[in-house]
Amino acid sequence: MKQLMIKNGTVYTDGTFKRAHVIVHKGLVEQIILSKTEVDESNFLKVVDASDSYVLPGFIDSHVHFNDPGREEWEGFYSGSRAAAAGGTTTVFDMPLNSSPSVTNTHILEMKKKHVSSRSWIHYGLWGGITAANVGDEEELKGMKEAGVIGFKAFLSDSGIGDFEKISKDQLKEAMIKAKKLDAILALHAEDQDLIEHYTAQLLLDKRTDRQAFLNSRPPSAELAAITDALKKVEQTKVSVHFVHVSSPLAIELINQYKENGFDVSVEVCPHYLLFDEQDFLNVGPLLKCAPPLRSRDMVEELWKCVERGWVDIIGTDHSPCPIQMKSEGDQNIWKAWGGIQGIQFGFQFFLQEAMKRGFSIEKLIPLLTSNVAKRFGLSEKKGDIQAGYDADLTIVKMNRQWSVNKSNTYTRHPYSPYEKLEATSKIMATVVSGDVIYENDQFIERTKEPMDVSAFSGFS
């Protein structure tokens, strides 16, 4: 018998939609058959009725912090990947921090790979880290690359994690040269630490502990300065650079100019920068603290224009969880709150909802969560679309379905969310990983096989 039939769905394939059945066998899409064709359902182990629903490629989130191993009390792969599945995500790339120890050498990478292999509900890839401590160790970086990292991540400002030191401006060029030699993507958290320290010093001198003080400590100019400097070094080194969680429209425009001039650079924007603004942070507080911070409403609107113009390559959640007490510690002193937003379960869905409300076509949006990510990270021969021979990683979304986020339907380890009480107008009805329906109608279904480390067939391995 064949593994799975998803019948009568509005199926996204090759950039367009078709009313069709999707036939899945041995973990792969075997056929896409127009709905008018009769199919004997008794030939399948499972049949899912997708009438009145979109059948989409499984979302790929290239930026999560599951903090596993070492800080599972913050999240962990088990709870994080379940929450991802409930949000329609079938593959994640986990950052080298905030696990403990951070992934900065081959030994730690191999330990992490072994540790998470039986804990994930969905496919995953692992980033390696370039820090001040290992940037000069070419053999160690080569070892991580050969062991299968998706790419390398570096911070140009303090990371907040003791064993993941930022690299200096001089070390950035060295990191780029190393990444270029290894044919690896270098992902950058780009904020200028010198400027941050300059602004923060005066705020602390004035004994400022309020929410506005945090916004003032990391202005858009700090982000633009770091990205401008990095792009100049891209000119010199010709390395592939992926700028993560960019919140500055001016920086995105500059990156796009480099892209148009033939440089291999890409931009990620997070849902929270498009859905919330600095006034929300001032009203809500630590729950919405992140770095870079949320921006003004005018900048949010400019970010949407960047999406419309095609300057944004990827939407990634930068899911950065922590126990709620690490947030509430900042209620009276904003500097004490952990900076990170939980977005893995709801970020993509509310991004799509807001974008469609603004008149974007879903055809324009889906690549930002699927095929663009697969192409950027060398997975496009197996993931990012629904085609015969591709992995059967699928997300079934029913439109015009009203519900609201609450603690009972939040599956992260700590069930708090900036999306709580927001009203949704569509719903993830099912998530399929390699042909296994692992989430359906608000219920998780035990996996029949372990998900894979996607670096095994990444074009960047």
- Helix and strand content put the structural class at alpha/beta
Shape: globular
Look at the structure and give the mean pLDDT: 96
Number of helices: 15
Number of strands: 18
Percent strand:
15-25%
Spans of at least 5 consecutive residues whose pLDDT stays below 50 are none
- Measured between the Cα atoms of the first and last residue, the distance is 35 Å
Helix content: 25-40%
Cα gyration radius (Å):
21 Å
Question: Which oligomeric form is depicted?
Answer: single chain
Q: In this structure, how is the largest beta sheet organized?
A: 9 strands, mixed
Describe this protein's structure.
The longest helix is centred in the middle third of the chain and has 18 residues, at 220-237. It is built from 15 helices and 18 strands. The chain has helices at 77-86, 106-116, 138-146, 169-181, 193-205, 211-217, 220-237, 249-260, 271-275, 278-284, 297-308, 324-328, 347-357, 362-369, 371-376; strands spanning 2-13, 16-25, 28-34, 44-49, 53-57, 59-64, 89-94, 123-126, 128-129, 152-155, 185-189, 240-243, 265-269, 314-315, 394-404, 423-433, 436-440, 443-444. The relative contact order is 0.16. It starts with a strand and ends in a 17-residue tail after the last strand. Strands 1, 2, 3, 4, 5, 15, 16, 17 and 18 form a 9-stranded mixed β-sheet that branches. A 6-stranded parallel β-sheet has the order 9-10-11-12-13-14. A 3-stranded parallel β-sheet has the order 6-7-8, with helices on one face. It is an alpha/beta fold and 461 residues long.
Question: Could you give a short description of this structure?
Answer:
It is built from 15 helices and 18 strands.
